[in-house]
Batch of 3 targets.
Target 1
Amino acid sequence: MAGYKQAFRKAFPYTIPVLTGYLFIGIAFGVMFAEKGYSFLWAMLMSLMVYAGSGQYLAVNFFVPGVSFLNVIAMTLMVNIRHIFYGISLLERFHQMGKKRWYMIFGLTDETYSLLCTTKVPKGVEEEKFLFAISLMNQSYWIIGSAIGGIAGALIPFNSEGIEFAMTALFVVIFVEQWMEEKNRIPELLGVAAAFVCLQIFGVDGFVLPSMILITLVLLLGRKKLETGMEGELCR
């Protein structure tokens, strides 16, 4: 455990924005899960074993009769396929973390990815322990929020219509944060343009996967120019 205490202490301030966001969207997930008749313990277990953010929101609708296993696989893949591309950009850093790399891959959410890419490791702290602390604390916030929401949803009856928008709001905040921090905003503009084009072609229900594929192709083809323009800002 040598060095972990300092790593967690140094990492915590960077995770405060995720703490505030994950508590609320975790609570929203817990409430939605409780409304399906499940105990808060199931919400906690799902946040511990699945930990898929928007995928968990989507999964709430899977626990109803008539939903096929193939539909579950297809929808989950469409919503969370972006995590594959996140992992590709961090393969080298995770490879150096030994056995902890398996948890780092599992815990790579949008918010964690953003922190791992933009946060500089403080002096006197080992990088692998610092990154591990960020990932572990972020998941703990999500689990705690899920538990609170599950308990509240079971004990306090209220209208939860629209509560799932909490996840969308968090994505918007992440996008704005990235936009404000980076000088070269070409990747963000390309992402918005690709999503808009695919939305017009495939519609609301089918544009996510084509958008991710198009964004990836464009970024791969223009990688050298983008890396030069961003002056080392890309996550490696």
Note: The mean pLDDT is 82.
Target 2
Amino acid sequence: MDRIVVSTVVYRSPEEVFPYLESFTRYPRYTEHLQSVIERGQGTVGPRYDLTLTWWKLSYTANSEVVDISPPDSLEWRLLTDLDAEGVWRVEPEPESAPPDEETASRIYFEATYDPHSADEDALSLPRFVSLSWVVRKVQPRLLKEAKRVVTRLVADIEGETRDVELTVHESP
């Protein structure tokens, strides 16, 4: 299993941050490759979503489900088909990181755990002479960059303006 964990500080309380993490339909504005998010009903704990991703000549719709919600601290999700993957958004108060002109701060963590070799080859319509192992080798280095992009854009959305965001990479494949 591979794992990505990145975090950053946002100048808002966990209670102000959490609704942004909960709103999966906002996610396409944070990432380059997520084209759409459609809610597909309720799972056991939280909503289920279809996440349509595109990259290169490929398009894929991942089926996901929110499996645990603990506002304002964490939201856990997992993919339901085609790839063994799960993740969590965590928010921890970190008021000591707020600059003098801000009231408070929190640290947002994005964590994803996945097995790139568990991908179902039949789930993608690959171009001729392109193997799934080639796709995995090309996509894997891009995942950390994409996680950083998501967290940076999320902070801008939460705070209402873009700023330089310092990202901490705790783990990467």
Note: Helices lie at 14-22, 132-159.
Target 3
Amino acid sequence: MTDCLFCKIIEKEIPSYPVYEDEMVYAFLDITQTTKGHTLVIPKKHVTDIFEYDEKLAAEVFARVPKIARAIEKAFPDVVGLNIVNNNKEAAYQSVFHSHIHLIPRYGKEDDFSITFADNGSKYTTNDMATIAQSINKEIL
């Protein structure tokens, strides 16, 4: 894709700070550095988001995540956790439309990054939950 920022990074048309590269994946430091070591893992094949992955690509990309995560942990002994974040489509805060996985090292609760989840569980009955699960399950091929 000619106008994709991450494709240009893969092709070395735009400089980056590489962390890992092989035939399927390129990983590099996110320029925002939400926390020290914040890394993006991207497939070299252009896919917009998770909805465009096939099983083979998903297996290849996601298999690299633990290796890179362990490297971040070893590189920075003060890492006490790691968030793995993948935003898909604009409504889910995706801003670069080449699929990417954020690996965000955590150094403590005060490291200027947080994710919160609303607890809407009380809005759903057990029957609602069963119906939701069945709706998803019947679509899995």
Note: The chain has a mean pLDDT of 95.
